[in-house]
Automatic annotation (TrEMBL):
This is diguanylate cyclase. The lineage of its organism: Bacteria, Pseudomonadati, Campylobacterota, Epsilonproteobacteria, Campylobacterales. It comes from the Bacteria. Its EC number is 2.7.7.65. SUPFAM superfamilies: Nucleotide cyclase. Keywords: Membrane, Transmembrane, Transmembrane helix. Pfam families: GGDEF. The chain crosses the membrane at residues 7-23, 29-48. The keyword Transmembrane applies.
Length: 338
């Protein structure tokens, strides 16, 4: 039908032209019928090839590894077979549309990924407006999480039809997150490493200087840890580190930033915490560790310092480090305020 509309003007002109020729040349009725028959045979062949071409392109789209769908902004109009490899509970778009109008119903709202609404625009309009930017979608389907690169294009602006392509990048995203985790997490204890500490430490100083919110540092290490390794072996020493890291993590707040910055040395960034409150927390940690006695009984020494006006990363870190040194030099298993 679309092809007929496209070529109807051409066909009508051709028929009128033939009619003029017939009248001018005074062709017989048989010749007229023969020529008209040839004309419609040609048109039929054209339609045949057109339909063959349509099936050819449909096969290509259906066999694509990408999800390809057509949307009118409010609902999915059509989708290729790959769509149903992910949305396995639906046999066709009609079934899908009874429960969901949009694939965006499955988007996970997370920084770095496309949402249903972005900068006040619906997701398709946002994609169309920002074509030069690489966009990703995090999609949760039946408890399974997938990651896709996503793009949109205009198919028929008059009828409000838009094409959307989603390419599965789940494996790449998992690999990327694994690399990111290795870069900032301590391999043994799975808390932040030294690099992560310095990154968050710098961020916290900027926030404190900008908004005048207090924050404090608590630094601590295991007393006589070398004896643990010498007497019980490094494997036992690692078990002690892992066990007590988990235990201390269970006491800290979700907002506290806990990092391992050396062999048996740890540090905690305490946002929105004065040094007096940090001191009380350090005492609680010290007593809890001493009473825990899992794997091997150990004690810890603590240094505490709070941010003071004019501090930079060097000055506050030096104060907390000196406080830890004093705790160790004056008997260990104690907290010193810097």
């Amino acid at each position: 039908m679309g092809l007929y509309k496209k070529y109807s003007f051409f066909v009508n002109i051709l028929l009128a032209y033939l009619l003029v020729i017939f009248v001018t040349l005074k062709l017989s009725l048989i010749w007229i019928i023969a020529l008209i028959t040839l004309l419609f045979v040609g048109i039929s062949i054209l339609f045949y090839h057109y339909n063959e071409q349509k099936h050819y392109y449909k096969d290509i789209i259906d066999n694509s590894l990408n999800i390809v769908l057509v949307s009118d902004m409010s609902r999915i109009v059509s989708a290729n077979k790959t769509f149903f490899k992910y949305f396995k509970g639906y046999r066709n778009i009609e079934e899908f549309s009874q429960k969901h109008h949009c694939i965006c119903d499955f988007f996970v709202e997370e920084e770095g990924y496309i949402s249903q609404i972005n900068d006040g625009l619906s997701w398709i309009k946002y994609l169309l407006k920002n074509k030069v930017v690489y966009h990703k979608a995090k999609v949760k389907i039946n408890e399974n999480v997938y990651y896709f690169s996503i793009s949109a294009s205009v198919l028929d602006e008059k009828n409000n039809l838009y094409g959307v392509i989603l390419s599965d990048i789940t494996e790449q995203e998992h690999y990327k997150k694994e690399l990111e985790s290795l870069a900032i997490n301590d391999a043994l204890t799975n808390i932040g490493n030294r690099r992560f500490f310095h990154q968050k430490f710098d961020e916290q100083i900027v926030l404190t200087q900008r908004y005048n919110h207090p924050f404090s540092l608590v630094i601590f290490d295991i007393d006589f840890f070398k004896k643990v390794n010498d007497n019980y072996g490094h494997d036992m020493g690692d078990k002690v580190l892992v066990e007590y890291t988990k235990y201390i993590s269970s006491i800290l707040r979700d907002t506290d930033i806990f990092c391992r910055i050396g062999g048996e040395e740890f540090i905690v960034i305490l946002p929105n915490t004065t040094k007096d409150k940090a001191y009380l927390l350090a005492q609680k940690l010290r007593e809890s560790v001493e009473n825990y006695k899992e794997i091997l009984p150990i004690t810890m020494s603590f240094g505490v310092a709070g941010y003071e006006k004019g501090d930079d990363d060097t000055s506050i870190y030096k104060r907390v480090d000196v406080a830890l040194y004093k705790a160790k030099e004056t008997g260990r298993n104690k907290v010193v305020l810097g």
